[in-house]
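Posting this for the archive.
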Amino acid sequence: MHKTSTTTLSDSIDRLREWDSVLSEASWTPVEILLDTCAKITVIISLITESTTDDMFSAEEIDLMFSVTRKAEEVSHDILLSQQEGDSYEYE
């Protein structure tokens, strides 16, 4: 539980961990699920950054937020490129 004593932040971090796993298995995940996951990550990260401060999270949680955001950007960028080239998407 976070210092705020609310489960909302803890639940958000748990969701980010789950979605990080989805992105880690991107080569086996359907594109629709990947895009949905990327969108959810964007929304959660936006809400967290707008309504919290860094001192509300551990260093590990902050690293997770940066890492999962970076992965989501890479995956969505790769999907967009593959669609523009007319190829099927494969995450490397």
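The chain has a mean pLDDT of 86. Residues 7-84 form one domain.
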